[in-house]
Amino acid sequence: MNYEPIIGLEVHVELKTKSKMFCGCSADYFGNKPNTHTCPTCLGLPGALPVPNKTAIEWCIKIGIALNCEIPLTSKFDRKNYFYPDLAKGYQISQYDQPFCQNGWIEVLTEDNKIKRIGITRVHMEEDTGKLSHKGNVSLIDFNRSGVPLVEIVTEPDFRSSFEVNQYLQKLQQIVRYLNVSNADMEKGDMRLEPNISLRIIGEIELPKYKVEIKNINSFRFVDKSIQFEIKRQRELLDKNEIPLQETRGWEELKQITISQRIKEKANDYRYFPEPDIPPIEWDKLQIDKITSQMPELPNDKLIRFEKEYQLSSYNAEILIRDASLAAYFEKAVFQSKGVLSQKQIANTLINKKINILSISVKDLIKDIIHSSKKEGIDEIELSKITDDVLKNNQKAVDEFRNGKEVVIMFLIGQVMKSINKKIDIEIIKNILKNKLNKK
Amino acid sequence: MKLNQLTIKEAGEGLRAKKFSSLEITEAVFNQIDNVENKINAFVTITKEEALINAKEADIRLAKNDDLPLLGIPIAIKDNFCTIGVRTTASSKLLDNFIPQYDATVVKRLKESGMVLLGKTNLDAWAHGSSTETSDYGSSKNPWNIDYLPGGSSGGSAACIAADEAIGAIGSETAGSIRQPASWCGVVGLKPTYGRVSRYGVIAMASSLDSPGPITKTVEDSALLFDVISGHDVHDATSSPIPPISIANDIKKSIDPITIGISDDYFDGVDDEVKKIVENAIFQFEKLGAKIKKISLFAPKYAIAVYTILQRSEVSSNLARYDGIRYGNDRSFFEEEARRRIILGTYTLSAGYYDQYYNKALKVRTVIIENFNEAFKEVDIILSPTSPSTALPLGSTKNHPMFGEIADMLVEPSSIAGLPGISIPCGFSSIGLPIGMQLIGPQFSEALIVRAAYLFEQSTEWHKVKPNI
Fold it and tell me: I want to staple B391 with a disulfide (CB 3.0 to 4.6 A). Which of A51, A389, B184, B401 is the partner?
């Protein structure tokens, strides 16, 4: 049988707001001593109440706008009731039927270089849980992470390959970094991914009757590998006329497999109900317009603009906009070197020489490029002839070099320069000499 | 008059005039506690040592003419308000060892106003009930007859005021828990508008309804305490940003002739004796210049259904945090009433039932709110009995899982509408038990209902009668 993978994705992004979602504790907990970023609210102590973080909500809305979502003017928080030791209140404050953002989309590239639209079901706001660690036969709870703002982004089951998933994740990561709302650092758990996968016979229209969710993925590479593994595993089962179980599986990097964690026979009943401690949130259009007006230029727009405005190849433009700070550096360099350097020269230098923009100022970079470009050109055949002569006339140095005394190359370069009597790039001479010396 | 019998108003004036010291009042109060507490059981925890220290400190500040509104005045607080360093149990053994690391906003404001904290008063465990009989620390008794219940859930606060074991007290009401025990104990109970007084630090019962408020000997005292505890709180997202008006300052101002609404449905199923006394009170209001107008309101029985569903649902979620991991005692320490509520609330929130129960209850709640809004177009305030009966004998709650809902049926509609109400004494039954009536006003109309209550109170002597304990 021929199957196609049906893949949807849930991504949790931890926001880098100063304070937590519902209290004044610092949200910057990573690497801190356990239970030092806590208060009655994020510990869920009797009587404590949540007060929503306005900045976090605005950032959530920004993510929604970046993903082309509708922003309903009425929204609310709900309680998701379940028991887990890391959940201080016995419920998580989340959003159920009225998320901040819904019905969006994003475009990704497919394997055959086509543009494909992925539906965004919803973008909602919730709070993170504490963290459990198990040592011997004791379990410890660290509530530093409890109440840190989390944005959950849910897609439609629109992906047909792990390649598309990867494209999406890179774009999403880029967007939240552009918005400057999260570091989206996978290793630190700023971004958590949960793909769900099933297979369907090509040509069918309805969604498969089962769905396998994969957890425990902490890099883009693992998403790729775990999806590939699942596709293969499910295909084998379907070929044997078995329907894969509806379950949650975890990726085991060591064994390169997914293993069953929890079988879901029916949906969990979280007994959602409106959070009575937080009044519904009402926006007026002006407020949403204001947030929209504060949006930075997003990666896609920047890419198109770079190609057009600076006449860059899409390859070069894509590299330059990958990181918002590199793109800004490039634009600053173009502006400051107007009339002296071409945009292409700057782009090429940044890309080919892999310039570390943190270690050189725009001004110095421009100086460097001007300096090296002042070197005069020389005909390659002429240069080759001159180097041949120099090597012939300096046999002693050549022998020394070949015996391992590589510094003599500097002497040979000097001889070449003398013969040319022109100011040309040492690196070029050095390369030609080296090639010739190593050939024989 | 003994110092423990003073009102907040009298105590404040006396202290400032240096007629007596805070230490003397505080000692008089503890003297009374020593004498009657074994009969009344109003307190779960008594903080005598700290109170005496605080009273001495208050005296030093009084000597410097420090002018805080409650400086040196001994106050008792219901044991579901978190008090830093003082055990807070909500009258459940589950929290037998819980010592909060923070003060509820109400407590913080009272402390900042100079109160002397006497201790923590008894309630139905988790505030689940209208009798204090579900308290894991034993039932409180009605000071007018210790074979009778004080009502609840703020039964300890009402009883300690009636028994002069405190000068003022704080209770909390979800639906009736301030007004009903005030009525049964013959004292004044003010339930503020939902959101007028911060819930931060009050162990949550039903979060969309809980309203902290004063229980006092007089109407004016309730205004004095209200002024201290009301107002917006950054820690409570449901607290109203509307700045509160001081209601104590205006209490004596003459009042324009008001129209009082009376609904027959609020006299349906009410004891004849209670009915008669409240009708006398209506007549008294007429004599004072009020216009009386018959209105039609939804029968209270609809509110009971709505209230039961909303409250049980929220309770089931609010009690989830006591998961056996962090408070020493596990969930087996929930007694029958809490268990019953958790089970019912879990059911009404379950998939497939949510729309049928919780969602429908929310819709009916909106209809009830609109019903009141309509009524307040015709009348300024609504008057009715606070409770359908006088205090019931100890043991009455046994085998009556809906006891509270019946005892509170006349206060539940205004509670689910978030309205303010005040219960004031208006007479006694033939066997000498107090009878109370309530005045209900539109949202944020505390000033109005308190002035109306004050007008009535000042024309009667009911609040001056003391029980013989």
Answer: B184
